[in-house]
Write a structure and sequence with these properties.
- This protein is of the alpha/beta class and 379 residues long.
- It has two domains: 191 residues, NAD(P)-binding Rossmann-like Domain (Rossmann fold, 3-Layer(aba) Sandwich), CATH 3.40.50.720; 179 residues, N-(1-d-carboxylethyl)-l-norvaline Dehydrogenase, domain 2 (Orthogonal Bundle).
- Strand 3 and strand 4 form a beta hairpin.
- The radius of gyration is 21 Å and the shape is globular.
- The protein binds nicotinamide-adenine-dinucleotide and D-Mannitol-1-phosphate (44H).
- The site of D-Mannitol-1-phosphate has 11 residues, from helix 6.
- Keywords: NAD, Oxidoreductase.
- Belongs to the mannitol dehydrogenase family.
């Protein structure tokens, strides 16, 4: 470590500024933000601090300072130089963006002194194996993999859309579970982190409870022209449908990971309270964003549905939520536009189940999923 430990953080958006950066600062790191938004980078370069306002029980107001910022589109070479000297790299850019961050990490690792301590890399995305995805892209580009330690994580904190400026309002609740196993017993000091030896139960419980119910509410609400998640869950039919979806994923989580039914039901109730927090209005459009990613094979609907189908268990309510997702069409969401174009392309329902959701013919979910696409195309 140099005089002051340095963290390079990709993505100065809501989770980056509101969650990751404050914990990195608390852990004693200087934070170097890298982002492609010139507006955000300009603001971070001119404003020496911003505020984080936590809403809910135990919520505090923090001031975040001690950062620098680099426009990674304009100055990738400067980001690589920072990575060469850094102790840790984190990301919060979106799982599908990790492939574009990878070349900068490759360049940074190449410039790293041979005797430098390995760089710690943690991708803080909503994805199973987010850091593995980043590592795969770095490996594909010939990156010096042995100069870094790659750790997956599960990150949970609701940060709704913000309305200009750098300040962030978010919920007081958070959970950040990071895989300890790549560190061989020598995990770094990282405030806010819960180090775990088996990450799968944490990431699956989080993604298949919080994100599945969140997304189901968003798509069912959007289909009825409702703006916020809290308003959507006030509609009795939507609330009942979301609870039915949660009953399916809860059955899987209890059977697979050994959570007791009481534990899981407590987790479900906490989740429903969190996503309807009246002090933190969140929109169906934000929560439903990037529907093609959300309909992916290892994501919040299809992964649990596929696992349930493989066990011969029902997943009709997850499929109902998928049906609602297929109607998500905000003009300013590029993935929603792409989704609607794919649905209009003339491909048959079975092909769409495989091209959009990664479920091939012969999989026990395939025919029911194809039926969901058929119903959408027929309407
Ligand atoms: N907001 C939440 O409640 C929440 C909670 C947990 C996890 N997450 C996850 O965190 C990640 C970020 O979500 P968010 O809500 O902060 O989104 P966001 O849109 O607010 O922030 C993403 C940031 O990444 C930047 N970016 C895009 N491409 C980039 C690139 N190539 N290099 C560097 N920066 C780039 C964008 O300009 C933006 O500032 C996502 O994976 C999301 O699923 C979000
Ligand atoms: O970030 P996404 O697009 O994967 O999902 C939208 C929301 O469900 C998500 O951001 C939650 O607010 C968050 O995952 C809570 O921890």
């Amino acid at each position: 470590m140099g005089l002051m430990a340095t963290a390079v953080h990709f993505g100065a958006g809501n989770i980056g500024r509101g969650f990751v950066a404050p914990f990195l600062r608390q852990s004693g790191y200087e934070v170097v933000f890298a982002d492609v938004s010139d507006e955000l980078i300009g603001a971070l370069q001119t404003q020496p601090s911003y505020r984080v306002h936590e809403v809910g029980e135990g919520g505090r107001d923090l001031v975040v300072d001690g950062y620098r910022a680099i426009d990674s589109r304009e100055h990738p070479e400067l980001v690589a130089e920072e990575i060469a000297k850094a102790d840790i790299v984190t990301t919060a850019v979106g799982a599908r963006i990790l492939q574009f961050v990878a070349p900068l990490i490759v360049a940074g690792l190449a410039k790293r002194a041979a005797d430098a301590a390995p760089l710690v890399v943690i991708a803080c995305e909503n994805a199973i194996g987010g850091t593995d995805l980043l590592a795969a892209s770095v490996r594909e580009l010939g990156g010096a993999m042995d100069r870094a330690i790659w750790a997956n994580c599960a990150i949970d904190r609701i940060v709704p859309e913000q309305h200009g400026g750098l300040d962030v309002t978010l919920e007081a609740f958070w959970e950040w579970a990071v895989d300890a196993t790549p560190f061989g017993g020598a995990t770094p000091e990282l405030a806010g982190v819960h180090w775990v030896d088996d990450l799968e139960p944490y990431i699956e419980r989080k993604l298949f409870t919080v994100n599945t119910s969140h997304a189901a509410t968003a798509y069912l609400g959007y289909a009825r022209g409702i703006e916020t998640i809290a308003e959507a869950l006030e509609v009795p039919e939507i609330a009942a449908e979301v609870r039915a979806v949660l009953a399916e994923t809860s059955a899987l989580l209890v059977a697979k990971h050994g959570f007791t039914p009481e534990e899981q039901s407590g987790y479900v109730e906490t989740t429903l309270t969190r996503i309807t927090n009246p002090e933190l209005p969140d929109t169906c459009v934000r929560v439903g964003r990037a529907p093609l990613r959300k309909l992916g094979r290892h994501e919040r609907f299809i992964d649990p549905a596929a696992q349930l189908a493989e066990l011969g268990e029902p997943c009709w309510n997850l499929l109902t939520a998928v049906g609602a997702a297929l109607r998500f069409d905000p003009d300013d969401d590029p993935e929603a536009v792409e989704l609607q174009a794919e649905l209009a392309s003339g491909a048959d329902p079975g092909e769409l189940a495989s091209s959009i959701c990664g479920i091939e013919k012969g999989h026990p979910l395939h025919d029911d999923l194809a039926e969901v696409f058929r119903l959408r195309l027929g309407s």
